[in-house]
Write a structure and sequence with these properties.
This protein has a five-stranded parallel sheet with strand order 7-6-5-8-9, with helices on one face. By secondary structure, it is an alpha/beta fold. 39% of the residues lie in helices and 13% in strands. The protein folds into two domains: 140 residues, Aspartate/ornithine carbamoyltransferase (Rossmann fold, 3-Layer(aba) Sandwich), CATH 3.40.50.1370; 149 residues, Aspartate/ornithine carbamoyltransferase (Rossmann fold, 3-Layer(aba) Sandwich). Helix 1 crosses helix 11 and helix 2 packs across helix 11. The chain has eleven helices and nine strands. Bound molecules: phosphoric acid mono(formamide)ester and norvaline. The site of norvaline has 9 residues, from helix 6. Reversibly catalyzes the transfer of the carbamoyl group from carbamoyl phosphate (CP) to the N(epsilon) atom of ornithine (ORN) to produce L-citrulline. Pathway: Amino-acid biosynthesis; L-arginine biosynthesis; L-arginine from L-ornithine and carbamoyl phosphate: step 1/3.
Length: 301
Amino acid sequence: MNHFLDIHETDPTALREIIDSAAAMKAARQGRPKGALDDEQPLKDQMVALIFEKPSTRTRVSFDVGVRQMGGQTMVLSGADMQLGHGETIADTARVLSRYVDMIMIRTFEEQTLVEMAEHATVPVINGLTNRTHPCQIMADIQTFEEHRGPIKGRKVVWSGDGNNVFASLAHAAKQFDFDLTFTGPPPLDPEGALDGLYTIERDPQKAVEGADLVVTDTWVSMHDPQSARERRHNQLRGYQVNDALMARAKPDSLFMHCLPAHRDDEATSSVMDGPHSVIFDEAENRLHAQKAIMRWCLGA
Ligand code: CP
Ligand code: NVA
């Protein structure tokens, strides 16, 4: 069994297999109703716990649907309703859940919660977002890029905005999938130091996007950020909005991605989100396919 905790902790060969398997499973389902079972049932008789300590639309629904399509069953648990949210240790929670379920997906705050869960669980644990990373999102993004434009290896990817958890997983992917990553944003919102060496910085967003094959952004205020930071962040990030003028500086066939949920006309204009470069809804759909491939890899199924 394998945990899927972070892209930089996963072997590049396994990552490539996951992307290829996601694409194949997506192709095999074309035109079928969402509730139809896959031809293969690799999760038959498997029970999967989906734990959420933060809100979610895409992660929650895509994992739930994905498990069911592969023949398994799910239970969606809110962290606040579990004893975990009332003082029971993560280690004890992991040991107990491992007696009931075959796999655990958790969305949490501190990375340490995920790490401890994986240390003490005897079943695979999947990272459904922490304050530091969001690896399932980036696997879906790689799948999305490649289905539109071919191999991502050697391409130029530009992130404009906050150096947050989604950026961190993109930086890990830049190393594992061998693409060039540029960060453009204001110094107070630089990515954490542990990511140094995985990307280059260009403070001027207009210069940063020159020659870009892919432009990516995310919300200016993440779920773990204090809401009191909102006004300050808007002032810091306004110049990094992805708008038509910025996209016009990238390659003519560049793609635009956003993991969603978006604050339309803040980090990106609706004209870009709904425009010809945007693949945001393919990205959202590919969460389903990429995570199905991740779950199969975790279970060796
Ligand atoms: N992109 C993403 O993880 O969305 P949710 O917060 O809706 O799960
Ligand atoms: N950076 C965002 C991503 C949401 C999917 C957050 O952590 O809130």
